[in-house]
Amino acid sequence: MSKVAVYPGSFDPFTRGHMNIIDRGIKVFDKVIVAVAHNKSKNTIFTLEERVQILQTLFEGRKDVEVDSFEGLLVDYVVKRGTNVVLRGMRTVSDFEYELQMALANKTLNNEVETVFMVTDSEFSHISSSVIKEVVSLNGSASHMVPDIVESKLRDKLLNS
Ligand code: PNS
User: Fold this and answer.
1) How far, in Å, is the centroid of ligand 1 from the Cα of 37?
2) Residue 129 among the catalytic residues
3) In 29-117, which ranges are continuous DSSP H helix?
4) Catalytic residue among 129, 133, 155, 157
5) Quick one: which of 80, 60, 110, 58 has its CA closest to 6?
6) Rounded to whole angstroms, how far apart are CA atoms 63 and 60?
7) Domain residue ranges of the chain, discontinuous segments joined by +
8) Which of 71, 74, 103, 129 is the most exposed place for a label (fewest CB within 10 A)?
9) Predicted confidence (pLDDT) per residue in 72-87, tens digit
């Protein structure tokens, strides 16, 4: 039986840390569905469509990585996609509390859905969307933190608007 994991997130922006989890996730699962959350309450830099498009460009032609978006409860989306695994990355101890809360909430909502955590490789553990935004808006290089396409789109958004 092929095993599929849903890797959900805001991906605003998508980082090299996220890529690290996907690269390693596909060594454990047959397929990883990168699921971009449609979170109306969050003020995002990129629209949902922009985030999905960036990911589609990055994973074009890949059979083991699918890009999708979802609205509503994550557990419902996971069931809809015919799996029971949520993949999440954890960078630092400070991520733990948030991730624990979310995994427990999801378990309460659907006890069949399991969250699998991977610890982000240490070279990516300092990367966060707030650091990226600050570096780019101050005209610094974020190439070690985000893929090139993300950096160029961030520059357009944060410096040319
Ligand atoms: O990258 P993020 O912002 O940490 O991702 C958080 C995300 C999108 C995975 C989380 O907010 C989520 O699952 N949202 C969907 C709504 C939901 O299911 N909420 C209940 C569980 S907390």
Assistant:
1) 7
2) yes
3) 48-58, 74-80, 93-109
4) 129
5) 80
6) 9
7) 4-125
8) 71
9) 999 999 999 999 999 9
* pLDDT tens digits along 29-60: 999 999 999 987 778 999 999 999 999 999 99
Sign of dihedral through CA atoms 40, 21, 110, 98?
Answer: negative
73 CB less than 6 Å from ligand 1?
yes
Instruction: Tell me which of 27, 40, 42, 63 is the catalytic residue.
Output: 42
- Pairwise CA distance, residues 6 & 66, whole Å: 9
Its pTM stands at 0.97
Q: Indicate the Cα dihedral angle 116, 125, 123, 59, nearest 10°.
A: 60
CATH number for 4-125: choose from 3.40.50.1260, 1.10.10.10, 3.40.50.620, 3.90.460.10. 3.40.50.620
* Nearest CA, atom 6, ligand 1: 9
Residue that has been written with the tokens 């909430």 in this structure: 105
